[in-house]
Design goal:
By secondary structure, this protein is mostly helical. The chain has 2 domains: 135 residues, no CATH class; 183 residues, Multidrug efflux transporter AcrB transmembrane domain (Multidrug efflux transporter AcrB transmembrane fold, Up-down Bundle). It is built from 11 helices and 4 strands. The strands form 2 sheets. The chain has a two-stranded antiparallel ribbon. α6 packs parallel to α8. The N and C termini lie far apart (104 Å). The C terminus is likely disordered.
Length: 346
């Protein structure tokens, strides 16, 4: 109950109790109230000679009908909160500087909320009940500290998809500028997509949910893994003239940059190794995911993408290789003959 809801008004008291009953009995996965100061106050007020005259037949306090009732309500609440055993409600009521009541709260508990879906259902149900109440969300709001984190589950899937799409588009543009080959760019994007699918499968295997931590890891995986793939593909394309056959070209690329790519994966592993000994759950999740990102990146770089390349690029027949080899020999011989002629002339 926040500012704007005059809890001294018996109609507001009735609406608030009705809302709490609905939250307790009809809201998905909620129970209570286990603690509400007004219930105890309305039971305590009739026992006080200065207050019993303001309690109506329905058991609500008439604190707005007269100035005396309003003053009695404010004074009665202050006395109530300072009387044993009601001091425990001291943090449940807030006052303005002039002594008038500013806001108050009642406590309920959610139960059986394991999993993101159940958490969202419980939170949304309390919001809807407050909105449908005569008090409205201007006077009654539901809030819990975990709601801050539960809210992310409502948008996490959409945000993850949007960020992954943006990341893939950025990789596609930059890869095209570097590789300038549709099949090479397609091979890189295919491996990136496969790695993210692998990571999603590992999340399910480990019993982890899609949340802020795992979403960040999925998106960062694209930036980390693209190094293992793009370097190999760039070297592969650079050897096109020297090695017409894609198998020979990929073998040359692996021989040239494979060691550097493997070293990059190893140093990344060394960098994240301390996280394995962290006590924080978030750090341990990061370690698991980054370890898999490095491992999957190296596997796709050294095993998967060479296979994809061999499938996408047709191999050169042996007869063509012989022709190319003979042509290269003839070209080399002519070049040497021209050099000899030049030297003889000189």
């Amino acid at each position: 109950m926040q500012d704007g809801a005059d809890i001294a008004d018996p109609s507001v008291q009735a609406d608030a109790k009705d809302l709490l009953v609905q939250l307790s009995n009809y809201t998905v996965k909620s129970e209570g109230p286990v603690s509400w100061w007004l219930d105890d106050f309305l039971a305590w007020a009739p026992t006080q000679s200065t207050l019993n005259g303001f309690v109506n037949e329905e058991g609500y306090f008439e604190g707005t009908a007269t100035e005396e009732g309003a003053a009695a309500f404010e004074a009665g609440v202050v006395k109530f909160l300072s009387t044993y055993p009601f001091e425990r409600f001291g943090s449940e009521v807030a006052f303005w500087d002039d002594g008038s009541m500013r806001s108050s709260r009642a406590t309920l508990y959610h139960y059986g909320t394991a999993g993101a879906k159940n958490k969202i259902e419980a939170m949304v149900a309390t919001y809807e009940k407050c909105k449908a109440s005569p008090l409205g969300t201007e006077k009654a709001i539901s809030f819990a500290q975990p709601y801050i984190f539960i809210t992310q589950f409502m948008i996490i899937t959409r945000e993850t998809v949007q960020n992954l799409i943006c990341s893939f588009v950025a990789v596609w543009i930059l890869s095209w500028l570097v590789l300038r080959d549709t099949r090479a760019v397609g091979a890189v994007l295919l491996c990136l997509a496969a790695i993210d699918v692998d990571l999603l499968g590992l999340l399910w295997l480990w019993g982890l949910e899609l949340n802020g931590v795992t979403m960040i890891s999925l998106i960062m995986a694209i930036g980390l893994v693209v190094d293992y793939l793009a370097h190999l593909m760039h070297c592969f394309m650079a050897h096109t003239a020297q090695f017409p056959d894609p198998r020979d070209r990929m073998a040359a690329a692996l021989a040239e940059v494979g060691g550097a790519v493997a070293l990059g994966g190893f140093t990344t592993f060394v960098g994240i190794l301390p996280l394995a000994f962290a006590s924080s759950f978030i750090y341990r999740v990061f370690f698991k995911l980054f370890l898999c990102i490095v491992g999957l990146g190296l596997v796709h770089g050294f095993v998967v993408i060479p296979v994809i390349v061999c499938l996408l690029y047709p191999s050169v027949p042996s007869s063509e290789k012989c022709k190319i080899g003979t042509l290269e020999k003839k070209t080399k011989a002519l070049t040497l003959a021209k050099d000899d002629t030049v030297h003889s002339t000189l």
